[in-house]
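Issue: copy button drops trailing tokens. Both records pasted manually instead:
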Amino acid sequence: MVELSWLRGKVALVTGAAGGLGLGLSRVLAANGARVIMADVDAAGVQDASAALNESGGATLAFHLDVTDGESWNGVARQTREAFGEVDFLCNNAGIVGAYEMPLGVSPDVLRQVLDTNVVGALRGVQTFAPAMRERQRGHILNIGSMTGIDTVSAASDYSASKHALVSLCEAMRDELSPDGIIVSLLCPGAVDTGLGGKRIIDAASGSAPGAPPASSAAARPSNAMPVLDVAAIALAGLTRGDFFIFTHAEGRQRLQKRVDEMLLGFDTLDAVMQ
């Protein structure tokens, strides 16, 4: 068991904290003594979630945040500093699934929205809070990726593309920020049982993400879906160790190996052609 006592008194900001993994991370952080800013585009939902954690002895505040809006980030940064001080730990968790389609079925407008939330949203968060971390020469950043960013899931091509982009961006963040004492980690979970079920779909016409449909079928959750609190504990343990890649499902190794083998075959073919 990795010791998480270092979190006591630290200021943590978690996006997408109204439910799912963001709420699970907030719960584990608060239970270990962190002061948690819970941010979400669902203002009412995140207020309720924060109130519930505070009733259990947590020290949390809830702020509305649209991760695609720079001014919204600036507002949350200002409110956070006024309430708790500088952020020690940033968790870019907010994300949307998108259309959940093969490439020919994906609208370019939907793909732009997915990238703006899942990739640019994380970039905005780091650009907002990393400069102060740099000045202090310390800080932790946890970006929430996915195994779909390691091994493509064609039926979720827009979401998968966004998570591949996030992997590359996070590697660049690590290279830029690690010399300044900032630990950057990337969680790539497999199936997570958030309790929400179904798929979260973007409404391209309105630009909104109305949330998941009711969890009426067990088929919405893979049989290997991991409880959200278990995923949160794995993520924070990996962050504490200073791991960059943090995985949750051992079977992901085979998926990655298959992809790497295919890439290496391309180089083998090149070698044969060049001889």
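Record 2 (pasted manually too):
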Amino acid sequence: MDSVAVLGSTGSGAYLDRAERAAVVRCAVDVAGRTPVIAGVSALRTADVLAHAEDAAAAGAAALLLAPMTCQALTEDEVVGLFADASAAMDLPIVLYDNPGTTHVAMTPHTYGRIAAEAPVSAADRGWAVAECLARPVRPLPEAARAHAAAVARELGLD
């Protein structure tokens, strides 16, 4: 196993308060040993994202998993701004978590390009395809996933 991710978008992380989320990350780091822990820090407010990121870093997380969360539609500028703010405030690598089925924020390849230019991220996860540009996927990706990954790679100049 290469890493462990906790507090993603499909579990109970969104329902936990700050202390409970910090406890989950501490527990995961303790149990994972030398295996890196990627801690989900998504929240409705940027201030809460930054607080969760601080707690995750203090608990020993190796990276942060961040998805834009919303009750109302976000503009592309707001999504990019979230990643820029988090990147500027934190030293840990950020994994862009693009899970439109849960977050209701559908990031386009152009959005990926803007985020990469304004707020460097270390990896991307689209819910159904961990790391958009995997050279050897573990399972065959649906055609839509392949097309999206190719468009992201073109936007980032990786093709």
